[in-house]
Amino acid sequence: MSTDLALPASLDELLREYPWPDEWVRERKPVEHFWTLSVAMPKRALWPHLSDTSEFNHRLGLPPMRFVERDGKLYGSQERGGGVMEWEELPWEWEYERGMQNTRLYSKGPIERLRARFMVADEGERACKVLVYFGGIPRSFFGWLVLRYGLRSIGADFQRVFDQLAAAWKSDTPPPPAGPPTTLSPDARRRLYESCKNLQADGVSKALVTQLEQFVVNSSDDELTRIRVRDLARRWGCSEREVIVAFLLGTRHGVFSLTWDAVCPHCRGARQTVSHLGELPKNANCEPCGIEFDATQTQSLEVNFALHPGIRPVEKVLYCAAEPAKKPHILVQKTLPPSARALLSVSLTEGHYRLRTRGSKMYVLLEVEPSGASDAVVYNGDAPSSTVSLLAGGSVEFVNPSDRPMTFVLEQHEDDRGALRPHVLFGFQEFRDVFPQEAIAADVQLDIGQQTILFTDIVGSTRFYEQVGDGAAFYEVRRHFLKTYDVVKLHDGVVVKTIGDAVMCAFRDPSGAIRAAIELQRHFNGARADSKLRMRISIHAGPCLAVNLNSNIDYFGATVNLAAKLQAIAESGEVSFTESILRDPVAARVLAEESLAVEPVHFPMKWSGGAITAYRICVSGVARSSAPEAAEPSARSGPPS
Fold first, then answer.
1. Hey, how many other C-beta atoms are within 10 angstroms of the C-beta on 610?
2. DSSP string of 109-155?
């Protein structure tokens, strides 16, 4: 995605391109070091390690750092040589797979300013060169000695780490751990062993349980403080569902704990982390990005796991701010002084991108297409939100027209593929079983996006109770609930709630709902010796909200309302649904494979004054001989939403 440019051949050439600000070098001359190092791996393989400066510094053997945020700024501290150094960490600047730089303004210690820059360029298909630069302005003669001699060997240290990473890449094995291996106490090992046995008893495969156990034993504190299970599933080559279920069951057995994070939509950092869903706020703010955001939106919430302290207490230890690695969706972050401009070396491939400036909610959507309308975009940060079409491979230029520095951002606009969103978790029956008391705050409505809602209802339940008596009827209805739960779970759905004899379910996609409906209707066909119950089913898909109802997670909105009212056009053995189901290609293919005739039905919506064309199939009932008549919601239209 980046375009290789020639690396500066000397320190003077580098400083001509990236000079020190005049006011910083007016009184003292900087002390500088410059290396060009060869690495036996391509830059695409090296960049994830180089950009994770916390991990890289750990490999270099540097002591840990502490960071705090105050008034929208990041401040760091570190113990070095028996003293403490404190500084303000200016926002990092980087271009994806091209280079990065950072600057520290010290308030305590022998140094006033420190700049670091790293630039990468491929050298053939299996090697690259890395420019490493450090320059500092001393506060005193002691500071000059620290900069002159303390940094002199860092080039050799970088080469040592590069050689380690290249050897691992060449042998297609993970690089060696950055620090010494972790150890578990005998009691913790015994607890982990028992928990893993319980996971297997719960149905988790032996191979995955072994993978989880090795992950817990061999991973660093940093990896175990915020575990992103979707990323793990991709790394392990397992299905996401299998891994998420294993972690959910692992929380029940005391291996992991679950957290809810309010995530900044710009930097994607966790701005507030809580242990219970009900503690999440309506709104949150990100001081470093300078914005407030709605924490109830789909992209503003993330679910993560951490190692349970009963196995081993873990603490996130940082060796650098590592901004580029924390924000992999940001391809370019660059601060420009007043009246400056910069042409980016990143070559954009087809996709969706966003241009914005730090501290502003306005942005320009960049649609990069093979037949884009323009081959160049100039962005000055003050344009109203809009969409621009750019030719693939076209150029992007940042321009700062203001009288103050501005930080520009070019980022990928797609959703974070590694984020586990609450609405996905709500779709796991295991979550509802393991965390039955989790509930949203009473005054919060979470946007959970598209859901497929299915309602079942027993036909003639009142007459059935009168015929067989309350005891026998209760037994049959309970068995009906258990069967419904099993079928819904089998097709990747969840039971949201029961209302009397009815069940409300939610599925991730329409095809799962259709498959479950067909299986349920074939089971409850009235001809079974073990159950004479019959049911009607209705399905609709659309946007939903998650709310708190009776201290449980419930779904609400027009989608739920219409799904319930559609039962007015279904009899026993039938399934009614909307066009949103029929438009789904997988659901349509299921209907075709089952050779089920789809019958259109005019459905007036008296509550809104409109009407839609709905559809129904007869799975195990008596086929209707007459043409469909206009149907209206009636008393048997199912449970209210």
1. 9
2. SSEEEEEEEEEEEE-SSS-EEEEEEEEEEESSHHHHHIIIIISTTHH
Decide if pLDDT at 633 tops 50: no
CA trace torsion 164, 167, 172, 173 (10° rounding): -40
DSSP 560-573: HHHHHHGGGG--TT
Angle between helices 229-236 and 206-218 (to 10 degrees): 110
Return the pLDDT at 637.
Answer: 35
Two structure tokens written together for 407: 């930080």
Structure tokens at 134: 């450090």
Residue type at 6? A
Residue 47 CA to its chain's centroid (Å): 21
Tell me the per-residue pLDDT of 285-311, one tens digit each, with 9 for 90 and over: 887 787 888 888 888 899 999 999 989
CB 594 within 8 A of CB 518: yes
CA dist., res. 41 & res. 522, Å (int): 59
| DSSP 3-state of 600 | strand
Q: Looking at 265-318, which runs of residues are DSSP E strands?
A: 270-274, 283-286, 291-294, 301-307
pLDDT band at 322 (very low <50, low <70, confident <90, very high): confident
Highest mean pLDDT among 34-43, 286-295, 373-382, 597-606 belongs to: 34-43
Residues 446, 444: Cα–Cα separation, whole Å: 6
For residue 311, the number of C-alpha atoms closer than 13 Å in the C-beta half-sphere is: 26
In a 13 Å sphere around the CA of 239, the CA atoms on its Cβ side amount to 6
Model pLDDT for residues 91-133, shown as the tens digit of each residue: 999 999 999 999 999 999 999 999 999 999 999 999 999 999 9
Task: List domains and CATH numbers for the chain.
Answer: 11-170 (3.30.530.20), 186-322 (no CATH), 330-412 (no CATH), 445-618 (3.30.70.1230)
Type of residue at 310: G
Q: Which residue type does 229 have? A: V
Rounded-to-integer distance, Cα 134 and Cα 151, Å: 8
3-class DSSP state of 250:
helix
